[in-house]
Amino acid sequence: MTSGSGSSSGDGDFRPESGGNRTLVVVLIAVLLLVGIPAIAVGGLVLFRADNSEVVSESNGVPSDPGSGSNGEDSPSTSPTTTITDNTQDGPSVDWSDADESPKVVDFPAHETAFLKEVRVAKHSGFDRVVFEFDGEVPGYRVEYVDELAEDGSGDAVQLQGVPLRVIIAPASGVDLSGDTYEQIYTGPRSINGVGGVVEQIADAGDFEGQITWGIGVTERRPFVVSTLTNPTRLVIDIKGD
Questions:
Q1: Which CATH number does 98-240 carry?
Q2: CB neighbours (10 Å) of residue 76?
Q3: Which strands form 191-193's sheet, in the order they lie side by side?
Q4: What is the pLDDT of residue 179?
Q5: Hey, where are the domains in the chain?
Q6: Looking at 136-198, which runs of residues are DSSP E strands?
Q7: What are phi and psi of 32, to 5 degrees?
Q8: Cα separation of 242 and 225, whole Å?
Q9: Closest alpha carbon to 131 in 83, 85, 169
Q10: Alpha helices of the chain — where are they, by DSSP H?
């Protein structure tokens, strides 16, 4: 005589019928839910958790993310950004040992013309920096205070705010005339405002016969130093601030 809903195998083990197995699962889930423990049934196996730890997904066995919202929206990601400020250094620290108001001169070398690509100004702690960037070898220069800034070639006065610090650079040009066609290399502004430091304005004063002239308008005559950098080629003028 057989009792209950199970059957006996040939080796004497008692095995419940499938219907009884499902009933047991349902009852167990109901008990777990009554005591406040979330549970799910997967293939007849009950998986439960008493906290917010991960639960195995029935579909692919990959742990579900308890932090994911039901609306499918991901948390916003933060991308790295680069902020450029006026006090960013453009080259080495300044050696002020030779700083004064006298002219700074390096003879014009006999090599190919360096082509002007960019002119920029930045305010730093205790000084302003003006940079002329070139494509080519380092040119020579003459940097000095003058009473009036005049355009190279015509001699016409160039309007400039502040005391003129004239910069003559050679061999250099903003245009390339070596080929069959005229190519404008420097396409930046001819006048550049200062950034709130001792440099009030920078102005183009000529590109004539292999040399370029610019004027730096300074609040007053101040000590300055000139240096050159490579990779890329740059002429750097640092003017002492307050």
A1: 2.60.40.3500
A2: 6
A3: 104-106, 140-145, 163-170, 211-218, 199-208, 191-193
A4: 82
A5: 8-66, 98-240
A6: 140-145, 163-170, 172-173, 175-176, 183-184, 191-193
A7: -65, -40
A8: 16
A9: 169
A10: 18-34
For position 34, what pLDDT does the model report?
53
What are 101's two structure tokens? 């108001």
In this structure, are residues 202 and 166 in contact, taking their beta carbons and an 8 Å threshold?
Answer: no
Cβ–Cβ under 8 Å, residues 29 and 21:
no
Tell me the one-letter amino acid at 6.
G
Residue reference for tokens 């000529």: 206
Burial class (CB in 10 A: 0-12, 13-18, 19+), 87: exposed
Written as six digits, the tokens of 193 are: 């405002």
134 forms beta bridges with 116, 233
Consecutive sets of 10 residues in the chain, 242 residues long: mean pLDDT of each?
A: 44 43 50 50 44 36 40 34 36 83 96 97 95 97 98 94 99 93 95 97 97 98 97 97 90
Query: Omega into 103 within 30° of 0, i.e. cis?
Result: no
DSSP class of 96: G
Q: Residues 224, 182: contact at Cβ < 8 Å?
A: no
Phi–psi pair at 28, nearest 5 degrees? -65, -40
Contact partners, residue 232, CB within 8 Å, separation at least 6: 117, 133, 134, 135
Extract the tokens encoding 106: 């390096």
Instruction: Give the CA diameter of the chain.
Output: 126
